[in-house]
Amino acid sequence: MIEVEVKVKVADLGAALDRLSKLREVGRYEEEDIYWDDALGTLRKRGVVLKLRRRDGACSLIFKGRRLKCHYKAREEVEVKVDDAKGMEKILSEIGLKPSFKVFKVRREYISPHGRVFLDEVRGAGSFMELEAVGRELSEARARLRRLMEEVGVRKEDIITKSYPEMLEKR
Fold first, then answer.
1. Torsion-angle region of residue 41: left (phi > 0), alpha (psi -120 to 50) or beta?
2. Considering Cα of 46, then 41, then 85, then 126, what sign does the dihedral take?
3. Among the listed residues 106, 125, 108, 126, the one whose alpha carbon sits nearest the alpha carbon of residue 117
4. In the chain, which ranges are continuous DSSP H helix?
5. Contacting residues for 59 by C-beta, under 8 A, at least 6 apart
6. Which 8-state DSSP code applies to residue 10?
């Protein structure tokens, strides 16, 4: 599947919650993403991401392919559930990877027929609204994201396409 996403800095949490009130909230949780790479930064240089995500005792391994040419942040994403986080960390270490970055966030998740919206409190970076839409083709995912942006009142000029690690590295 192709995932297209954008972020928007949230200056007024109350206003953001009001904009999201028409959507269905489906979860509140803490989430930690541990990004993995080798000592030379090979994955990063290739423009791909491999991260181990922990959420409420569950764990998944996520691969994000190279960014596609698109006004928004778009890439292929593959996510698999992991039953044994420590075992997966051992495997990643044994094949020459090491943790390269960690992102911790408290997240509220909302759903819409067009996609998902997350209201994130990111440690060290602040509050953000992240919108995600998926599709089999890039054009389908982009169209769904545009409808989601309209639904929650996000304007093109307000979007941020940087990842949380890219934002946190600048600090």
1. left
2. negative
3. 108
4. 13-20, 42-46, 85-94, 138-152, 164-169
5. 52, 53, 81, 82, 83, 84, 85, 88
6. -
Q: What is the mean pLDDT of residues 100-112?
A: 97
* ∠ CA 78-89-97, rounded to 5°: 80
115: three-class secondary structure by DSSP: strand
Q: How far apart are CA 142 and CA 35, in angstroms?
A: 26
The CA–CA distances, whole Å, from 53 to 81, 88, 161 equal: 10, 11, 20
Q: What is the pLDDT of residue 104?
A: 97
Q: What is the pLDDT of residues 56-65, one digit of tens each?
A: 889 999 999 9
pLDDT of the residue at 34? 97
pTM for the model: 0.90
Q: Which of 150, 141, 156 is nearest to 75 (CA)?
A: 141
